[in-house]
Design a protein that fits this description.
There is one protein chain. By secondary structure, this protein is an alpha/beta fold. Helices cover 34% and strands 19% of the residues. Helix 1 links the parallel strand 1 and strand 2. The longest helix is centred in the N-terminal third of the chain and has 13 residues.
Length: 133
């Protein structure tokens, strides 16, 4: 799993793909998403809570192409730090409770849990506006 300080680790392969901030409280889910995305050449910045996500975002000098986070009540309010500092960042919400159509209050794409490896990667590329890789 890559952290913001891993940039300078000797021998670590530099990933060249888009940068994704993964904000997920459940360690196992977060680690799985990070591993999947890194295997598909994404640069991943993991965060376990909103405070850590804000610190990681502030410390990252480059672009932040995508945020992956859980959907839920108040999700937009908790992400104010991102909208003000990085309005260009796209959002992919993970949810086990949303049906096909997201509620109007959620601005961003939705990926239903459980998801497959291919489903996650395909959705990330879709949200980023690129090919399915």
């Amino acid at each position: 799993m890559m952290t913001a300080s891993d940039d300078a680790v000797p021998g670590r392969r530099e990933l060249q793909g888009p940068t994704v901030l993964v904000l997920e409280e459940e360690a196992g889910v977060r680690e799985l998403i990070v591993e999947i995305l890194e295997l598909h050449e994404f640069r991943v910045l993991p965060a376990r809570d909103h405070g850590e996500a804000e610190r990681v975002s502030a410390a990252h000098a480059g672009p932040l192409d995508l945020l992956i986070t859980a959907a839920g009540s108040g999700a937009g309010r908790r992400l104010e730090f991102l909208w003000s500092a990085r309005p260009e960042t796209r959002v992919l919400y993970l949810s086990s409770w949303l049906e096909d159509a997201p509620p109007a209050r959620i601005a961003g794409a939705i990926l239903a849990k459980p998801f497959t490896v291919d489903g996650l990667v395909r959705k990330v590329w879709e949200v980023l506006g690129g090919a399915t890789g």
